[in-house]
Design brief:
Blueprint (H helix, E strand, L loop, with lengths): L1 E2 L1 H10 L18 E2 L30 E2 L3 E4 L4 E4 L4 E6 L2 E6 L2 E3 L7 E3 L1 E7 H4 L6 H17 L1 H4 L2 E14 L2 E12 L5 E9 L7 E9 L5 H9 L1 E2 L11
């Protein structure tokens, strides 16, 4: 996706629901949110290892692309709106949104980056600690920024500005978001946001939505997605434990 958001979304797509931590088992992948699924070209599919294949639509192992409307995160019982020029995919432990606009990553032209990405996952899967939405969002933002715009794709993050840190209501739940502008060593800077809130399907489980969008794009797309997150149609979700 955007910087490395897409990479981790690909990992989430390839692992089962019982996993509590992500492993970095792909020496080739980049950490840019603007990177496409898998951190390399699409033909190679999901990262190696990581358990069962991602859910698909019966035609191969690729998740079904949602071109408009909303994409469902069945595990957490929410849906994420698909912005114009983006597409969505449901994962086994979340959902992902990816900009369709791509380019060669400035730090490593062998990798493909995209203009923006976002994905949802339980905080426990990401390894983000905290007992409240505010604690989780504040604990997650630095890892999100590094995942999205650090590493080989953009070089190191040289500095950041805090653009927002505030309480929000998401899908009827009391949540919290932190938004940074991350300044990169090479290529585009990025808007990164960590949004945390209790799952409508499991109020004792906090959901994190990580965002990464190049700064030449509309910052308002972060608000559009945040404000458009709703309880998934058909009820309170699966309620499965992670």
């Amino acid at each position: 996706m955007g910087a490395a958001v897409a990479v981790v979304a690909a990992v989430l797509a390839s692992i089962g629901v019982g996993v509590y931590a992500l492993t970095d088992d792909d020496e080739d992948r980049s950490t840019a949110t603007s990177q496409r699924q898998g951190g390399r070209d699409d033909e190679r599919g999901a990262p190696e290892g990581g358990g069962p294949e991602r859910e698909g639509d019966g035609e191969g192992d690729e998740p079904r692309r949602v071109e408009s409307g909303a994409v469902t995160d069945s595990l957490s019982g929410i849906s994420l709106p698909v912005p114009e020029g983006w597409y969505g995919e449901e994962l086994q432990v979340g959902a992902a949104l990816t900009s369709k606009e791509s380019y060669d990553c400035p730090g490593d032209a062998s990798k493909t980056c995209v203009k923006g990405g976002a994905y949802s996952a339980p905080a426990v899967v990401l390894g983000t600690r905290g007992g409240t939405a505010e604690e989780v969002a504040k604990a997650d933002i630095a890892a999100n920024a590094e995942e999205s715009y650090g590493g080989e794709a953009y070089g190191r993050i040289t500095s950041h500005d805090v653009l927002a840190s505030k309480a929000v209501t998401v899908a009827g739940q009391k949540g919290y978001l932190v938004r940074w502008r991350a300044v990169t060593q090479e290529g585009s800077d990025g808007f990164v946001q960590s949004l945390a809130f209790p799952s409508p399907s499991r109020p004792d489980q906090i959901v994190v939505v990580r965002f990464g969008v190049d700064t030449d794009q509309r910052q308002t797309v972060l608000d559009e997605i945040t404000e458009g997150i709703e309880v998934a149609e058909g009820g309170r979700g699966t309620g499965q434990d992670v």
